[in-house]
């Protein structure tokens, strides 16, 4: 368990939304003593009851009540994508600092409103979890900063998953409401690539795939990004559930656990058992925190770090390959490996950043402007595909100093 400094109090979090995003953060909240969950709201009564029992916090009957709770210092917004802007502004109106899940928002206007509301209220805004928090990504960035491969010239990122065939609520299959792999998954991949290449995307040319009429949203994309300074990156994502790139990550899944090779086939088989939209949405809810099929927190920490698929960074003097256990380095001296010891607390990197901002007065790396720039690129993927041409970015920001 990660403990706070003796002179510092744990961060007091109020949670909006106890669904999938919160479920993935539960092991972190349970094991990292730098955080204490004091309040929460979710429309599911079972989830609220489970929260009060598991964390001893107050289960409120509205998002506004959580934000108004005087015990709450930070609000963690983990509601559906289309509610992020409303809930961040609500928290700011009550003078609360905010961490909001990715994607930051669905439009640039909403991003602007969120940034403005937090600045006027004098509160911090941090966006995460995105996989750019992951320890191997931070280690690769540190090797780049140390000059190990010279100037970054190219990044290649690729991820093949079963995303589109996991149980979904209807809005998760509606692009306009934040559904599809661009809003949900490119937010990870673009954040990783921007962090490794310096942040300043100059242009985007993308093509998206919509290949299943029964799941009428983007299930795949490929994009070419150019960066100020001359670097470029290729990003590819396929969520149609056949090939699995975790085979290239030593059999380690996205959450740092060993993964069965037939996972995608089993995902499709489970979905086939759902008779209609309502049953599918219920199936998802039952597997999340407070649901009948929620498995609870694993008794042991994962054997490796979380990741977002194969990533290779090429510089003028070498290459880096990110893995779940560290970073492979290839240069004139030959291949080498810089290990990242296994995590004691999953996703503790997210709390590292929150702690650095809240208790050490440091700047957030994943602040509003950084995350708005990632949203700009994600939206450009959709627009470039629609228009069939390259688009120029206008809201990009350079890589901030690391918060932790």
What does this structure look like?
With 404 residues, this protein is α/β, with parallel strands linked by helices. It folds into two domains: 11-131 and 346-366, NAD(P)-binding Rossmann-like Domain (Rossmann fold, 3-Layer(aba) Sandwich), CATH 3.40.50; 132-344 and 375-392, Dihydrodipicolinate Reductase, domain 2 (2-Layer Sandwich). The protein has eleven helices and 15 strands. A nine-stranded mixed sheet has the order 14-13-12-11-7-10-9-8-15. A six-stranded parallel sheet has the order 3-2-1-4-5-6, with helices on both faces. A hairpin with a 2-residue loop joins strand 12 and strand 13. The two termini are 18 Å apart.
* DSSP, total strands: 15
Question: Helical content, roughly?
Answer: 25-40%
The whole-number mean of residue pLDDT values reads 95
CATH architecture of the largest domain: 2-Layer Sandwich
Strand proportion: 15-25%
Are there runs of 5+ residues with pLDDT below 50, and where? none
Q: What is shown here, in short?
A:
This protein is α/β, with parallel strands linked by helices and 404 residues long.
């Amino acid at each position: 368990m990660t403990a706070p400094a003796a002179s510092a109090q744990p961060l007091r979090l109020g949670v909006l939304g106890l669904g999938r995003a919160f479920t993935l953060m539960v092991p972190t909240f349970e094991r990292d003593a730098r955080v204490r969950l004091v309040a929460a709201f979710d429309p599911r009564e079972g989830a609220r009851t489970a929260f009060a029992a598991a964390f001893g916090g107050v289960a409120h009957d509205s998002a506004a009540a959580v934000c108004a709770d005087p015990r709450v210092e930070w609000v963690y917004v983990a509601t559906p994508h289309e509610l992020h802007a409303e809930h961040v502004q609500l928290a700011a109106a009550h003078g609360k600092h905010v961490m909001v899940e990715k994607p930051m928002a669905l439009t640039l206007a909403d991003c602007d409103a969120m940034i403005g509301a937090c600045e006027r209220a004098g509160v911090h805004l941090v966006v995460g979890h995105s996989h750019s928090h992951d320890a191997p990504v931070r280690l690769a960035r540190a090797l780049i900063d140390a000059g190990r491969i010279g100037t970054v010239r190219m990044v290649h990122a690729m991820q093949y998953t079963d995303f589109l065939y996991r149980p979904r609520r209807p809005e998760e299959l509606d692009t306009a409401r934040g559904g599809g792999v661009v809003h949900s998954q490119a937010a990870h991949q673009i954040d990783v690539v921007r962090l490794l290449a310096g942040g300043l995307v100059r242009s985007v040319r993308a093509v998206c795939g919509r290949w299943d009429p029964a799941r009428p949203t983007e299930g795949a994309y490929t994009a070419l990004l150019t960066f100020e300074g001359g670097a470029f990156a290729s990003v590819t994502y396929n969520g149609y559930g056949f090939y699995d790139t975790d085979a290239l990550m030593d059999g380690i899944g996205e959450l740092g656990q060993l993964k069965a090779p037939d996972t995608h086939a089993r995902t499709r088989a489970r979905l086939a058992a759902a008779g209609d939209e309502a049953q599918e949405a219920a199936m998802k809810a039952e597997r999340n925190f407070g649901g009948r099929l929620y498995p609870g927190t694993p008794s042991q920490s994962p054997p490796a770090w979380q990741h977002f698929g194969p990533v290779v960074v090429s510089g003028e003097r070498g290459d880096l390959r990110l893995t779940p256990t560290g970073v492979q380095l290839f240069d004139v001296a030959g291949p080498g490996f810089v290990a990242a010891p296994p995590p004691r607390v999953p996703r503790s990197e997210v709390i590292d950043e929150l702690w650095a901002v809240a208790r050490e007065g440091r700047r957030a790396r994943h602040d509003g402007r950084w995350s708005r720039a990632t949203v700009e690129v994600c939206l450009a993927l959709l627009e470039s595909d629609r228009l069939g041409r390259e688009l120029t970015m206008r809201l990009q920001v350079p890589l901030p100093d690391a918060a932790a």
